[in-house]
Amino acid sequence: MNSIITLDHVSKTFKGKTAVDDLSLSIEEGSVVALLGPNGAGKTTTVSMILGLQDPTEGTIRLLGGKPRDTAVRDRIGAMLQDVNVIEGLTVLETIDLFRHYYSKPLPLQKLVEISGLEAEKNKRASALSGGQKRRLGFALALAGDPSILFLDEPTVGMDITARQHFWETVRGMAARGRTIILTTHYLEEADSIADRIVVINKGKLIADGSAAEIKASTNQKTIYFTAGPGLTPEMLAGIGAITDVTWSGRRVKIISPDTDQVIFAIVQRQLDIKDIEIHTGGLEDAFQFLVQQ
Ligand SMILES: Nc1ncnc2c1ncn2[C@@H]1O[C@H](COP(=O)(O)OP(=O)(O)OP(=O)(O)O)[C@@H](O)[C@H]1O
């Protein structure tokens, strides 16, 4: 397979604080890669260095056989970043058409309006769109040049369910046409369903890399849910071995553990007041929680 993006020992430091720490990564053409990590892990900084918006402090980045800022490279990449800056005074249609002119082989205007799902708003000023609508416009702008590589930085934040479905359908269609897609998201179920490769970074370092199935299998985490009776306090769960994480949502408790038998045994032995127990094999979220706590 062809490597379309290569990061070689890339680091980025802001005033002595390391945001990306010696990251090496090779991304193959046609893959859909989800870049995951907790807040501040360095995802956006990584994407913005690949896009040439920031320079690495150390290391090199190559994409499409060139450097991020090469004109020929920029012609083939599209990006939907967290803030969509619309140009004051232009309508949705005019904004899309303006972006088409930045590229040598743009998609047809009508196709991009369909992608945005903003047919009814196309003659509205772009600045008057709602937050979710602006993001849909941002998506159409990212696709204006029919890019070979598409970057999506937390793309579905603020989108309603229908917009999300429409969005992922379009992204799946692009993946099926062999486009390379790099996305960051905090919605792990989205990453699980769309990405063929998951890269987890934490504190600027790569900590896991593989398919969702490989990552889940490697961490071997399972989940126990139960409802805590009135007498149960968080302190009573302290000291039980093999617990990766505990979350309380009201009286409903979620425990992530590599050994649910051991946890259940300890709960029974301590005669803790719980009911409605459910045990699930671990999802990507459980694997993720485990990885970032290491
Ligand atoms: N321009 C900047 N100046 C100083 N520090 C920065 C700058 N940009 C990012 N950082 C710092 O670098 C670290 C990584 O930030 P980054 O935005 O890449 O994380 P992220 O993984 O995208 O987080 P989130 O999920 O919250 O978007 C953070 O500690 C952040 O405060």
CATH architecture of the largest domain: 3-Layer(aba) Sandwich
What binds here, in terms of ligands, is: adenosine-5'-triphosphate
CATH topology of the largest domain: Rossmann fold
Q: Helical content, roughly?
A: 25-40%
Element pattern in H and E: EEEHEHEHHHEHEHEEHEHEEHEH
In this structure, how is the largest beta sheet organized? 6 strands, mixed
Ranges where pLDDT stays below 50 over 5 or more residues in a row are none
The CATH superfamily of the largest domain is identified as: P-loop containing nucleotide triphosphate hydrolases
Strand order of the largest sheet: 5-6-7-3-8-9
Mean pLDDT, all residues: 92
Count of DSSP-assigned helices? 11
InterPro entries: AAA+_ATPase (IPR003593), ABC_transporter-like_ATP-bd (IPR003439), ABC_transporter-like_CS (IPR017871), ABC_transporter_ATP-binding (IPR050763), P-loop_NTPase (IPR027417)
Protein name: ABC transporter ATP-binding protein
Keywords: ATP-binding, Nucleotide-binding, Transport
Domain ABC transporter: 5-228
